[in-house]
Amino acid sequence: MMRRLLLIVPLALAALLVSIGPLEARTRRPPQPFEEGFEISTMFVHTSFEDRVEISDDVGFSGRFGYYFTPHHEAEALFNWVGTEDAVFPYIYIDTFHFQFAYVYNFRPAGVVPYLTAGIGFLDISDDALGSETDLTMGAGGGIRFFATPVFSFRLEYRFNRFEGDGRVFAGGEDFDFDEFSFGVGWRFPSY
Fold first, then answer.
1. pTM for the full model?
2. Rounded-to-integer distance, Cα 76 and Cα 70, Å
């Protein structure tokens, strides 16, 4: 009798726990997009300078940190680093660091989210032969996020940027531009 009781009690507890799972799942609401929150993204970035800049196109890394004021409006800081070389004289190495503070408009709060972005920042170029230069940049672009879960997404983006040389590395007073193509992943977190 005691053996049966020792066997029945754990089986009854296991059956109770198994039945609570489906009941709890039925009473939970599906995840809703949150009103305010943060987003962190890590991405690969391909930077393509116009030909007269004479810097080779190359791939680097990008980090993003965004704050959602609402599901549609976001402020974002981006940091891109690309190590490349001179397009005319090989083996002259160039580090590019691009920082930009941007506004992002998200067309949808969740699921597949297309967006537009525009911002202002600076581009720091460090050339082994010519020295370094830091220039103001203005950029605009757009992209799309694919949310696999309410917080995890894949992200694809294009950004066009323009800057004016100051004469140390690039001709002073001339406008130059470069394109950035980014792909990576992101995580959203509610702020409450």
1. 0.78
2. 13
pLDDT confidence of residue 8: 63
Angle among Cα 35, 36, 41 to the nearest 5 degrees reads 120
Instruction: Provide the H-helix boundaries in the chain.
Output: 2-27
Q: Which residues contact 63 (CB under 8 A, 6 or more apart)?
A: 40, 41, 42, 43, 78, 79
Question: CA torsion, points 126, 129, 130, 135, in degrees to nearest 10?
Answer: -20
Residue 106, SS3 per DSSP: strand
Query: How much is the average pLDDT of 138-152?
Result: 93
Identify whether the C-beta of residue 43 lies closer than 8 Å to the C-beta of residue 183. Answer: yes
Q: CA-to-CA distance for 170 and 164, rounded, in angstroms?
A: 8
Q: What is the pLDDT of residues 124-135, one digit of tens each?
A: 999 988 889 999
Q: Which amino acid is at 93?
A: Y
Decide: 177 and 161 in contact? Cβ < 8 Å: yes
Q: What is the pLDDT of residues 51-80, one digit of tens each?
A: 988 899 999 999 999 999 998 999 999 999
